[in-house]
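Exercise: predict the structure of this protein bound to magnesium ion.
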Amino acid sequence: MNLSEVLLTALSAHGAREVFGIPGDFALPFFKIIEESKILPLYTMSHEPAVGFAADAAARYRSKLGVAAVTYGAGALNMVNAVAGAFAEKSPVVVISGAPGKGEVLSGMLLHHQAKTIDSQFAIYREITCDQARLDDARTAPAEISRVLSSCLRESRPVYIELPRDMVAVPCEPVVALSPAPIDADALAACADEVLARLRSASAPVLMVGVEVRRFGVEEQVAELARRLGVPCVTTILGRGLLAETDAPLAGTYLGVAGDPEITRMVEESDALLLLGVIISDTNFGVSSRKIDLRHTIQALDHRVTLGFHTYPDITLPALLDAMLSRVAERNAVPRFERPNYPRGLVADDQPIGPNDVARAINDLMQRDGPIPIATDIGDCMFTAMDIDHTALVAPGYYASMGFGVPAGLGLQAASGERPIILVGDGAFQMTGWEIGNCRRFGWDPIVIVLNNASWEMLRTFQPESAFNDLGDWKFAAMADGLGGEGVRVTTRAELKAALDQAVATRGKFQLIEAIIPRGVLSDTLARFVAGVKRLTVAKTNPA
Ligand code: TPW
Ligand code: MG
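Solution:
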């Protein structure tokens, strides 16, 4: 095999199922081998941020490698933001960038796409990936590939592979996968015993799940552990969608002041809050109505378990869960808790549409047809998703980059084989909405709901006096035909319902529903979130 085939075979063996990409001259020879070897299918997109977002969503959905292949400089640097988001939200994306060959580097000339030095790109990517390799030596390449791919899965974070264009076709030995590092059985036993003792001596334990639970593929174990311990579960914002496919005793999502008061009380009054794979971020905890003292929580994150003031290093989440499950044999009754009442029963009248109506319409649809995977952007669309029944969800819940939703939805359809719903605001759609033009080539047919308020409404709620939050009235639905799909603009709740029914009934082409939402009309969750953040900010800047 040549180096490119070795790399593609190793990606596949580590769980990658496709490559998203945009070529350039430094990457053309590699792309030729991707296409002709047929080891993994290639989906080309229109703009590199979308390549990164799609690969990220595929990685999130499958909890396996997502692959983003780009050219040197203009291509790879165009994708920095998407990869930073994958780093922040712990998504295992493999970035493969073409690069100049050895002879070219020695020419003494500056090369096109070169920003500062030939190594600038490597240095930039070192900051937003957890491991890196430049495949400039066929003898060391298999070991480098093996190390980097195993780092990607172990850390569940992006990695960077640079492939000089004169290396793509050199003969190369296959990659031997690394076996995971062994875990100290005594430390693991002590850790599991201590965590269980804490939970058992508590009067109101709660299990909070974050993204690592999906990344490391342990949703079933968490659900079973919660059942056996008799402890209710909640997710973080970023973890929303987790446990949706299990029988876990799931109360809902902790949103602090922005969320269901019952869930907020349950979490904030818990005397043993077990955080499983929860990223400690302001979006997850900054909205607390009362400060949660993290020193009193039990945290399993980044292969460490911390209780009070001590830490067990090198304990993975899967190992911890297995050890705990082996110590608790019987299922216990879970104390009763109220499940949130997600809105349903859309009234199909001639009233204008609000974000809550969109949640209602989707809940009605899922009640009729079963769960549908969802991708959202950031903006009110993401808060609207918090009012939709638990279902597989990809959303930039912490890093919060606009432009994620549409390309992530395409990645979601590629990875799941299922037809997703994409929720996106008009501002975010202006960034990456064009990417739906790629659906026809690959047979994707997502249902895209653009919440069009001609506004950066989420920003407006923080700062109503600024006129720059007014956006133009772009006619998105009218663009759908030219992009290979079908579009409809709806202004009433009756039209919204009819459009969604029509979209569901029409397969084979993307369906764009442009829901016109009056400025100033927010989802209940966003309204509470903004009010809460404002209150907390005032309290921080004007301490009493
Ligand atoms: C890449 C900052 C956060 S929310 C927002 C902006 C500009 C407005 C979103 O407008 P949209 O949705 O999509 O119409 P809505 O519901 O508020 O009307 N640049 C990037 N990411 C972020 N998060 C911003 C700017 C921002
Ligand atoms: Mg908007």
